[in-house]
Amino acid sequence: MGMPKQSDFMAGVIEGFYGEPWSQSERFDLFERMAEWGLNTYLYSPKDDLKHRALWRETYSAVEAESLGQVINASNAQGIRFIYGLGPGLDIRYSDSGDVNCLRKRLEQMLALGCHNFALLFDDIPDRMTPGDSRQFDSFASAQCHVVNDLLQWVRERCAEVRFFFCPTPYCGRMAQAGLGGEDYLSIIGRDMAPEIEVFWTGPEIISQEITVAHILEVQRVLRRKPLIWDNLHANDYDGRRFFCGPYSGRPLELREMVSGILSNPNNEYALNFIPFRTLAEFVHCRGVWDARASYLSAMREWLSQFAATGQPVALDDLILLGDCYYLPQQEGEGAELLYSWASNLVVGDYSTDDLAHFRQTASRLKVLCVRLTELRHRRLFYALSRRIWELREELDFLERYVAFRVAGGPLQEYFNSDGHLPGTYRGGIVPRLQRLMTRNSDGSFLPVQEPPNIIATS
Q1: Going by fewer Cβ within 10 Å, which terminus of the chain is more open, N or C?
Q2: In terms of CATH, what superfamily is 307-407?
Q3: pTM of this structure
Q4: Is 318 annotated in the active site?
């Protein structure tokens, strides 16, 4: 076991999601776990810290600065590299010396708090410039290079050991292919940005199921440096109904030699990130064949200790089954795939007695577990799970009722009603109604439904 060949390979966590930032106690717990597991880097850049993004020109108040100073000190105490991220791209005027001075003041405040690593993030912003910027710079990429290079030089005069990081506006392959940021954006970044500045990259997609060596080699060629992976594999800020506790996967071990590091931008809910962080650490240190499923099962055995309950203890097999239902964005775990297969066979009427027995047994296990989890002593963990597992329980209850109707002799073409799942309260609301307007084909394309769904009459 040991880190990859790079002596300074960065491996760790990004607090970079949209949503409520983590608490101080959660960050302190994170640093202890990272140190224990051999992760070495933490990037502070929660999108909804107003002064990270929306109010980036404003320095922190004395109380806010004290709080951030505590995080920096706790990170340093565990030997974790602390990076402060700033996202000025929504409305920065690249040619305005006043805006550049605002950025300097922001970094100056962080320097005083003991921060020596900075990230300028230009993701998820309009790819256009003001008329003044367009007169001064040939391209959007040139404007960003000018500002970031200027800040690097300015900070270096005050802190020789500073490290700088940059997130481009097109930060994945699909965005680059679509021309986001303008013609030759990434090539200009590779040519004009100071070579020691690390550049973030999420892979072929924002949430990449796989990141191949061939893909990264092409990114290297364009950026003229090894990219630093900002990995959204376990991010859930785009879908509040889901979370992801499957293993770190879809990336070959050889990838570690092609990048300068891997940082995970995970679930919003800190309590749900044990498996993502634990398996990332094992991937980074693995010296052999990487078995993602085996790593998942091993990490589940460790995570089980956090599921102490006031009543009957949670069984490991049941926890694994639940995790399989909330595995990865494009992949269910083994137990969830089996559950879906049995349920699908039952719904379409092509099922065996074994399908029926397996579905009933598995659905019952999950429903009982969902109730048992209300007794967790780790209340933050329960609160993070509660809405998701209630939805799972409701869907299983609905399907069990339908299966009972079918087994009792109800024909496929006969309408089924459930007194426990009434219109408006079950799968209700404007979002589900909007979703039912379009149907998705197996190739990912969309078509309107053949007949508009019923309109709920309003008086």
Answers
A1: C
A2: STAT; domain 1 (1.20.58.240)
A3: 0.94
A4: no
